[in-house]
């Protein structure tokens, strides 16, 4: 997560929000909290900015809903990454999104070209409506805004501890079957020899995608990332899969969703 960077104009903040890869059901919360974290030093100085951050987050999340849910038909378990730049002038306490820089990465069986086409189409059709609806900040959002700004630090520490625990949990991976898509499924095994989840490596839109689901101590996590290796590299040396998993940040998901994903991967084995 980057910190705010000053532009050439004194006092004006120009930065980019990057949600990282998150499940589609959590993008709105992640975007809002990322924005709060980037501007937390300013929030401490201004009650009005806390309200403005809540307004700006609601504005862009409304537009993203049109893109992800209405147009791309995403499920809450799909993985997405949102990137967009913004500008904030402390003098007028107004955050302005640069929608020309909005980039949506949607990790499903759709090409990047199709996702970009839909994103641009929705921005053209819905942006004016969204800007009017969120022209003013709602007073009732201020207390929530202040609370979220304070909670960011504590949650960051907690997430780092969870990520470290999961990274050391998976000790080995065994290929258990080929997929109709041309990919391969691996069983993930902990240090005690027990099964803790599944991982698949599949070709999608010219890339190879590593998609892993881990269930441990009543909690579930997902790792979803593009990888520079193909299926044969992982089959010939499964330790590479463990190495690449350890480099990614696991995303918390529900145990129910994790079980469905594991069942889905098993059903795709041919």
CATH class of the largest domain: Alpha Beta
Low-confidence segments: 1-8, 152-158
- Under the CATH scheme, the architecture of the largest domain is 2-Layer Sandwich
Class computed from helices, strands and strand pairing: alpha+beta
> Biggest β-sheet, characterized?
6 strands, antiparallel
The CATH topology of the largest domain corresponds to: D-amino Acid Aminotransferase, Chain A, domain 1
How many independent structural domains?
2
The mean pLDDT is 81
Number of helices: 8
Determine Rg (CA atoms, Å).
20 Å
- Widest sheet, order of strands: 6-7-8-9-10-11
What does this structure look like?
There is one protein chain. The protein has 270 residues and is of the alpha+beta class. It has 2 domains: 5-158, D-amino Acid Aminotransferase, Chain A, domain 1; 168-267. Helices cover 43% and strands 31% of the residues. It contains 8 helices and 11 strands. The protein has helices spanning 27-38, 40-43, 47-71, 112-133, 142-167, 231-236, 239-246, 255-267; strands spanning 5-6, 13-18, 22-23, 79-89, 94-107, 170-178, 184-190, 195-204, 207-216, 219-227, 251-253. Strands 6-7-8-9-10-11 form a 6-stranded antiparallel β-sheet, sandwiched between helices. Strands 1, 2, 3, 4 and 5 form a 5-stranded antiparallel β-sheet that branches. A hairpin with a 4-residue loop joins strand 4 and strand 5. Helix 1 packs antiparallel against helix 3 (47-71), helix 1 (27-38) packs across helix 5 (142-167) and helix 3 packs across helix 5 (142-167). The protein is elongated and about 60 Å long.
């Amino acid at each position: 997560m980057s910190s705010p960077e000053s532009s050439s104009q004194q006092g004006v903040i120009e930065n980019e929000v990057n949600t990282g890869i998150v499940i589609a059901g959590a993008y709105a919360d992640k975007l809002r909290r990322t924005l709060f974290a980037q501007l937390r030093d300013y929030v401490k100085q201004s009650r009005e900015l806390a309200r403005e951050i809540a307004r700006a987050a609601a504005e862009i999340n409304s537009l993203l809903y049109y893109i992800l849910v209405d147009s791309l038909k995403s499920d809450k378990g799909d993985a997405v990454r949102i990137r967009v730049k913004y500008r904030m002038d402390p003098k007028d306490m107004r955050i302005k999104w640069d929608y020309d820089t909005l980039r949506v990465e949607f990790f499903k069986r759709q090409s990047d070209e199709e996702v970009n086409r839909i994103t641009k189409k929705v921005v053209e059709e819905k942006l004016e409506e969204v800007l009017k609806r969120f022209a003013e900040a709602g007073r009732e959002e201020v207390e929530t805004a202040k609370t979220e700004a304070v909670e960011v630090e504590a949650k960051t520490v907690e997430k780092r501890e969870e990520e470290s625990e999961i990274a050391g949990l998976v000790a080995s991976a065994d290929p258990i079957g080929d997929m109709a898509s041309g990919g391969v499924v691996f069983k993930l095994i902990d240090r005690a020899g027990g099964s803790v989840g599944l991982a698949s490596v599949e070709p999608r839109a010219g890339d190879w995608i590593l998609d892993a689901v881990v269930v441990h101590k009543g909690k579930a996590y997902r790792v979803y990332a593009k990888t520079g290796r193909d299926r044969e590299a992982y089959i010939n040396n499964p330790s590479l899969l463990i190495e690449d998993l350890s480099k990614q940040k696991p995303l918390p998901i529900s145990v129910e969703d994790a079980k469905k994903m594991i069942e889905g991967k098993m059903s795709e084995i041919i």
